Amino acid sequence: PDGNWIFAFTMGHALTDALSISASGVAVAMAVPEERQAGAQGLIGAAQALAAGLTAGAIGAIYEDSGRTTSYTVAAIVMIVFVVAGMWLAKDFWRSNRHRDHAPEPQRVTARRRDR
């Protein structure tokens, strides 16, 4: 592939990382009680770093042995499996509507005049 394809892929990857990594922090914030937020956010960050390190080694070995197509296919399948597993593990939380308890209350905005 030429440089334009690599650049386009990198920008797409950066966009999905920006959305997904932020989304995991928001999901943790919605699911964990307020007094456990710091520990939960630290744990999700550590889990992401560990998963990235393990995946890089495994996919690197697959790439070296079987080539690019196989390594990308394996990575995509593993990601889909983990997303489905995460959705399955969280099904009780979402069905119970407990995630609605963590949503901020809407604030009514009113205009005030300062000259009074």
- In total, how many beta strands? 0
Task: Determine Rg (CA atoms, Å).
Answer: 21 Å
Calculate the terminal CA-CA distance, rounded to whole Å: 67 Å
Kindly state the mean pLDDT as a whole number?
A: 83
Helix content: over 70%
Order of helices and strands: HHHH
What is the SS-derived class? mainly alpha
Largest sheet: none
Strand content: under 5%
Q: Uncertain runs with pLDDT below 50, 5 residues or more? A: none
Q: Count of helical segments?
A: 4
Overall 3D form? extended
Based on the model shown, name its key terms.
single chain, mainly alpha, 74% helix
Provide a descriptive summary of the structure in words.
This protein has 4 helices and no strands. The longest helix has 30 residues, at 37-66. It is mainly alpha-helical. It has a domain at 38-91. Helix 1 (3-31) runs antiparallel to helix 2. The mean pLDDT is 83.
Briefly summarize what is shown.
This protein is an all-alpha fold.
